[in-house]
Amino acid sequence: MSMNGGSRTSRRAFLGLGLRAGAALALATSLPGVTFAATGTGDRRFVVVILRGALDGLSFVPPHGDPDYANVRGAIAIARPGATDGALPLDGTFGLHPALSGVHALYAQRQLLPIHAVATPYRERSHFDGQNVLENGGEHPSGSASGWLNRALAARGATGTNGLAIGQNVPLILRGDAPVGSWAPSALPDVEPELITRLRDLYSNDALLSARLDEATKLGALAAEDGAGGMDAGKAMLRGGNVERLKAVADAAGRMLAAADGPRVAVMDASGWDTHANEGGANGQLAGRLRGLDAALLALKGGLGDAWSKSVVLVCTEFGRTVAINGTRGTDHGTGAAALLLGGAVNGGRVLADWPGLAERARYDGRDLKPTLDLRAVAKGVLRDHVGLGSRGLDAVFPGAERLAPTADLVRA
Amino acid sequence: VRSDLAAAIATNRFGLGARPGELDAAAADPRGWLLAQVRAPYVAPPELAGLAPSHEVLASFLEARETREAARRALSERYAEPGSAAPGGTAAGGAAAKRGAASSDDAGAKDDATAGQRDPVAEIAQGVRQTLLPHHVAQVAARTRLALTTPAPFRERLVHFWSNHFAVSVDKPICLGLAGAMENEAIRPNVTGNFADLLLAVERHPAMIVYLDNQRSVGPGSKLGERAARRSAAQGARVGINENLAREILELHTLGVDGGYSQQDVTTFARVITGWSIGGGRGRLAEGTPGAFTFRENLHEPGAKTVLGRHYSQTGEAQGVAVLKDLARHPSTARHLATKLARHFVADEPPPALVDRLARAYTKHDGALVPVYDALVTSDEAWREPPAKFKTPQDFAFSALRAFDAVPKEPRLLLAPFELMGQPQFRPGSPAGWPDRAQDWDGADALMKRIEWSVALAARLGESRAALDAAASALGGYAGESLRTALARAASGSQALALLVMSPEFQRR
User: Fold this and answer.
1) Which of A48, A142, A227, B21 might form a disulfide with A14, Cβ 3.0–4.6 angstroms?
2) Does the beta-carbon distance from B446 to A168 stay under 8 Å?
3) Percentage of residues in chain B with pLDDT exceeding 90?
4) Cα–Cα distance measured from residue A43 to residue A162, given in angstroms and rounded to the nearest whole number
């Protein structure tokens, strides 16, 4: 399937869903206590996209103006803007990887804010611990069973299910006391409402399963309403390669977020960024994945429609990669990374970075990009100025970081 | 533990879910039934006969890659001619062709890069995948059939456990066909042996070597490293170590992330195992049996090294073997493995006393695994009820199919449940393997996927399978009055089957 044809096919498939959607909706509205966006979260949308595997920030947002960049990156360096396969221009120091042309177009519209030399407080190099810290919002990999985005929902005081995990299960960042749902496309037929009713009886003494069943039926109805539910739509979304799937699912997520009674906060993730060997530069392995990310982010924007103007999307990863390339034309686990904020509500068109430089003495441990910005400050800034959390709420979301000031001016006044 | 529940616990918590008749087989002596499975000498299961060994899989990949590279070179020359359009009418196709010609490396990893673009280069890359995919499908189908029919399900669960501990994920396309081969060649024969042997077999298996990128990790002071350093000024070519395998051995396979190692230990250990590679290749790299583990002296960083405060003066491959043997004996490894085993069999947050007991058994018997399994099976904590483990999709699919003695014939039906419910075999997506806590599997959508699959399964099984009988033979004493009433009142036989497998009793072990 071609990159451009996929979404059209999905849309055609969506149109055939009227009846199924009606049945599922009737079922869902008969459930007590399961509603999205009942109160409190307003109409602002916040989406976190986690790129698992440690995305190489020096290729994602290449610092082509740094005097050491081209030399230290050798064969995988991204050329300056204007050169063949060169970076897409941002400012005098930074560019965007050439595979990100769709996202780059948002820069001129001031809806894209690349962020560099950013990191969580984690300073070791395990993916899995690094992701735990990224998601639990604390300073240590273990010891917290809830995620910062869930705590943000709880602090917002919203009733009903306002959070949505795109996937079958809920990642740590969205686990916690605030109710959240999860959704992924399905290639199997819808289940008869009568079986659901009987299962609800069977689960009456099982708190976990009954809660999950209620959330699932509500989410299924919402997906159907937005044209993303049911077997035909599911099959269409699951067709094609990884890029196609990510794009189709991002489009569906955008529609669910855009719905008047839809979720207001969502998490998506994508893996495959652990480029230890043959990473490639303007072309190659990483470039292919970034092209997929670019398409998915545009699909998310398309799905959000008018709600894009009220949206902030944070694209982040657990840590960066080594400044120098390794012996197998790739990069090993590092520290400082790059992130993106994009969305109609973002105060973009500039790069946010206190650049430490790439010279060996400027690096963290002599090998990694030195972080100069705490990712939690960025998240705090978005939660304060976009989601509307007060300082007490922020302290509950990021315990231990009470003295870390939220980054100002990330969203439009 | 109540005697009518002990057999159900043995077959469901420790095994893969009771097949018809299995509860009776285990009832007389549930602990003995389990321990007999791990004390029996290893015999390769006949179900796995006929699968291609790893060196054949890898050799066929290397051959397909050669074919592909030749085709790419031909394409590149064709489109490099002045005035010729790139395939598909875009510049990307031509650029990709040139890229392919310039690179002779790890073809698999590039397949995704070109996914979604219909150009000849992508189709050639797809050809490499197609070479390996039939091996993968055959392995998963055989593994699933074995899981559904084995009379030694505790042993088989342990095979799955260790395979996940040493995860090799086929989302890296070169691992298609290798992940399953590693389970059969390195894990199965060592599951009831000593952990040090298991560790050595896995870390020297070609699947692990290529999954974690060690085959071209080059010591800077090695012959090849020094030669490259002399030439690098002119050509910009760099060689050096890749620390991926070394880090994951320490973090995931042995000590655990809090096991007390530093970045310096990772880097030095990576130097220790430079040269741990695979055979085949071109030019100076043409040594060893193509596709088999090969120690390449000319990539190995010479000299004594210090890892975790210990001095290693061995030379060549023996140095890495010595480090691995010490890692296997390390107290952090004992604790790491004991915690994972207790979590897998007993509870997401396992009782500390149980973890201590397993770690002590491991250390006392110098890494022998059967005494650890013995300590697990004879611990009271392991028989507590109600069942605390929420089944993973793999647990669920295996146990549901076993409950009805249903063994799909088509490979497609053997693979599909795991894809649909989010746990495709040999594709955990990371070297950490699948997570082993309820919170990772109990999403709302995940529950709906289980329901959907249960309905499809029930429809395929037909009305003839009596749900009440299956409840008794699969759950024994756990099939209580309320469940039996719900099944008896179901609207149809097939609905009753779906209700049974989706019941709270069946969803846990």
Assistant:
1) A227
2) yes
3) 75
4) 11
Sign of CA dihedral B374, B377, B382, B387: positive
Question: What is the band of A307 on the pLDDT scale with cuts at 50, 70, 90?
Answer: very high
The whole-number pLDDT of residue A37 equals: 43
Q: Which long-range contacts (CB under 8 A, 24 or more apart) does B341-344 make?
A: B341/B161, B341/B372, B341/B376, B342/B376, B343/B436, B343/B437, B344/B161, B344/B389, B344/B436
Q: Does the CB of B103 have a partner CB in chain A at under 8 Å?
A: yes
- Compute the nearest-CA separation of A342 from chain B (Å): 24
Query: For B334-393, how does the pLDDT look when each residue is reduced to its tens digit (9 = 90+)?
Result: 999 999 999 999 999 999 999 999 999 999 999 999 999 999 999 999 999 999 999 999
Decide if A245 contacts A238 (C-beta within 8 A).
yes
Return the percentage of chain A with pLDDT > 70, whole number: 90
In degrees and rounded to multiples of 5, residue A78 shows phi and psi of -90, 130
Q: Is B247 within 8 Å of chain A by CB?
A: yes
Q: What is the CA radius of gyration of chain B?
A: 25
Instruction: Compute the distance between CA of residue B188 and CA of residue B42 in angstroms, rounded to an integer.
Output: 8
Which residues in chain A have their CB less than 8 angstroms from residue B455's CB?
188-189, 191-192, 195
List, in sequence order, the alpha helices (H) in A46-190. Answer: 57-60, 69-73, 101-108, 127-136, 148-156
Q: How far apart, in Å, are the Cα atoms of B478 and each of B348, B438, B505, B507? A: 21, 20, 7, 12
Give the pLDDT score at B232: 66
For B199-204, the CB contacts below 8 A with 24+ separation are: B199/B253, B199/B254, B199/B324, B199/B327, B199/B328, B200/B321, B200/B324, B200/B325, B202/B166, B202/B253, B203/B245, B203/B249, B203/B253, B203/B273, B203/B276, B203/B320, B203/B324, B204/B276, B204/B293
Residue A207 contacts B, CB cutoff 8 Å: no
Q: CB distance A188–B456 less than 8 Å? A: yes
The DSSP bridge partners found for residue A95 are A89
Report the distance separating Cα A49 and Cα A312, nearest Å.
11
Q: Please report the ipTM that was assigned to this predicted complex.
A: 0.86
Say whether residue B91 is in contact with chain A using an 8 A CB cutoff: no
* Residue range A258-285, pLDDT digits in tens: 998 889 999 999 988 999 999 999 999 9
Q: What are phi and psi of A2, to 5 degrees?
A: -80, 160
CB–CB contact B112 A272 (8 Å): yes
Residue A199 touches partner B, C-beta closer than 8 Å? yes
pLDDT tens digits, one per residue of B73-100: 777 676 655 444 433 333 333 333 332 2
Neighbours of A26 (CB within 10 A): 11
At residue A16, the pLDDT reads 27
Eight-state DSSP code of residue A77: P
CA distance A402 to chain B (A): 27
pLDDT in tens, A327-340: 889 999 999 999 99
| Contacts A–B by Cβ distance under 8 A | 221
pTM: 0.86
Judged by a CB distance cut-off of 8 A, whether residue A39 touches chain B is: no
Q: What is the pLDDT of residue B237?
A: 53
